[in-house]
Amino acid sequence: MILDISWPLTSGMTGYKNKKTFESTHIKLWDQDHVREAQFTCTTHTGTHVDMPAHFLHDGYTSEQAPLDRLIGACRVIDMTHVTECISAEDLYQYDIKEGQRILFKTSNSNHSYDQEFDYNFVYVAHTAASYLVEKKVVCVGIDYLGIERNQPGHPTHKTLLEAGIIIIEGLRLHNVLSGTYTLVCLPLLLQGLDGAPARALLLPD
């Protein structure tokens, strides 16, 4: 069974801080043209997406340079639905996180639907947890909301992870996913020279 953990891209979907991030228009209609065609516009951080280092680091790599081996492979979904504010380093000690792992956090954020008002109080990953994940040498971290941190001054969580080469996936949909081990397949669009990219993310149960 394949688990699709991506948000659908659609008009009216949740945007970060309620910004409109996706619009689509039908440019050919069946009744008129006997064919269907549409065009859409979106930001690089719409729905399920990958943050590239260029998003927060001056000399960070861009979308076409994303190391896909960090986005494809064995991963762990860790249930953090008991956390009400932020995931701290102390929250992670019990999970025996190991070098090379891909870690996806399932939180109470997953109770939101893709078209709800933006929740400014979403559960996020604290700087202490980011530092701990760097210490453990994980290769990928994902979370089930449109940001891995709120608007923390200086964006320490993003910078700590990205400076260590840890790739970030945001906007995962994990409501129906149990904690455990899976194979992750996450493919960001091949966007030349940009700071992030929407992605399709899948889990294959072990």
UniProtKB/TrEMBL annotation:
The keyword Zinc applies. It catalyses: N-formyl-L-kynurenine + H2O = L-kynurenine + formate + H(+). Gene3D superfamilies: Putative cyclase. Its cofactor is Zn(2+). Keywords: Hydrolase, Metal-binding, Tryptophan catabolism, Zinc. GO terms for molecular function: arylformamidase activity; metal ion binding. Its EC number is 3.5.1.9. Pathway: Amino-acid degradation; L-tryptophan degradation via kynurenine pathway; L-kynurenine from L-tryptophan: step 2/2. It holds the Pfam family Cyclase. InterPro entries: KFase/CYL, KFase_sf. One of its GO terms (biological process) is L-tryptophan catabolic process to kynurenine. Catalyzes the hydrolysis of N-formyl-L-kynurenine to L-kynurenine, the second step in the kynurenine pathway of tryptophan degradation. Homodimer. PANTHER family: CYCLASE-LIKE PROTEIN 2 (PTHR31118), KYNURENINE FORMAMIDASE (PTHR31118:SF32). This is Kynurenine formamidase. It comes from candidate division TM6 bacterium JCVI TM6SC1.
